[in-house]
Amino acid sequence: MQEQCLLKEQKRSRPFLKIAQVSNRGCSRKLQRAVCDLAADSSFDQASKKLKEHYGVELCGETIRQITERHAKRAQEFNRDRPKGSEIARQLVVESDGSMVPIVERREGTGDGRKRKKLSWKEYRLTALQKRGKLNWLYSVAYGSVDRVGDGLSVLAKRAGFGDITQVHGLGDGAIWVREQMERVFGCQMEFTIDFFHLCDYLSAAADVFGEGKTEWMGRTKTALKKGQINTLVEELKRLERQYPNHNGLIACIRYIENRETQFAYDKAIEKGLPIGSGKIESTHRNIIQQRMKKPGAWWKPELAEAMINLRILRANEDWDEFWQEEGHQGMAA
């Protein structure tokens, strides 16, 4: 009996656990990395099946959820602290837009928690930045205050080499917060341009007055816009408005253009070889946010949704290896 007590008090050495860097009933760093990689693309239950298929390891969906959420929250902080030394960039291209994500929140109170659930859609704002001449883009996401968009953009700008001589070409759909946050970070070094195809949506609604001649008018107008003839277009739209005073498409189009003066310099952008459409941010919404966050039946807590998007951004920003090489990946209880 005495010998048994002494054995319990003695510190035991577990060589395998030290070599594998895993705690008792935990997951190794390599396994956690595989789990997060699978769960970043698939539901937690599907990730469990894929883990067994490809690695021969069985973990339930709940354990995978816990592991993934833990590292997703750490990824969120990792993405906020990524400024790296870089040579000064001469030209940056920046695009920003919002995407709706299904959110579940719980109302305060007692009783059946299911009845206190509140389902809604919240906007998560995605920003994409590219250093001209480079193929890769950098991304950040923000939820809540629009100032957080600027905070994330500031980190990306430092990483891309923004400096005193850098010129910035900003693109967006006309939402006020997009331009304001870009101006907040880049000041007078930024020229903002309205997404050409978003403007064309307004023009299409206004062009209904032409009936069968709509297609011809749209083609002629697009060509004129690319030559910088925005003022001529406004004059023509106002003449049409006098002929059709109650046409909602015309009224909305004129108001949209007049509220955004100086933001339609497509001719200058084309001359410099810069994009006039924000198609990059649209495709990024699908690839980074919607593919994972809008799966059938998926509803997310607000803070977890942002963390999961940040986990996906790690790979898009090519930071995945660096993230997993950092200290702090302790064994996770299974």
Distance between the terminal alpha carbons, to the nearest Å? Answer: 33 Å
- Pattern of helices and strands: HHEHHHEEEHEHEHHHHHHHHE
Oligomer: single chain
Can you give the mean pLDDT?
89
Number of DSSP strands?
7
Helix run count:
15
Tell me the Rg in angstroms. 26 Å
Major sheet details? 5 strands, mixed
Stretches with pLDDT under 50, minimum 5 residues: 329-334
Overall structural class, as computed from helix and strand content, comes to alpha/beta
Shape: globular
The name of the CATH topology of the largest domain is Nucleotidyltransferase, domain 5
Just give the CATH class of the largest domain: Alpha Beta
Helix content: 40-55%
In order across it, which strands form the biggest sheet?
4-3-2-5-6
The assigned CATH architecture of the largest domain is 2-Layer Sandwich
Number of domains: 3
Q: Key features?
A:
single chain; two-stranded antiparallel sheet; 3 domains; five-stranded mixed beta sheet; Nucleotidyltransferase, domain 5; 334 residues; disordered C terminus; alpha/beta; 7 strands; 15 helices; 52% helix
Short summary:
The chain has 334 residues and is an alpha/beta fold. The protein has helices at residues 2-9, 15-20, 29-39, 44-55, 61-80, 147-160, 176-186, 196-206, 214-226, 230-243, 248-258, 266-271, 279-293, 302-316, 320-325, and strands at residues 26-27, 91-106, 117-131, 138-143, 167-172, 190-194, 332-333.
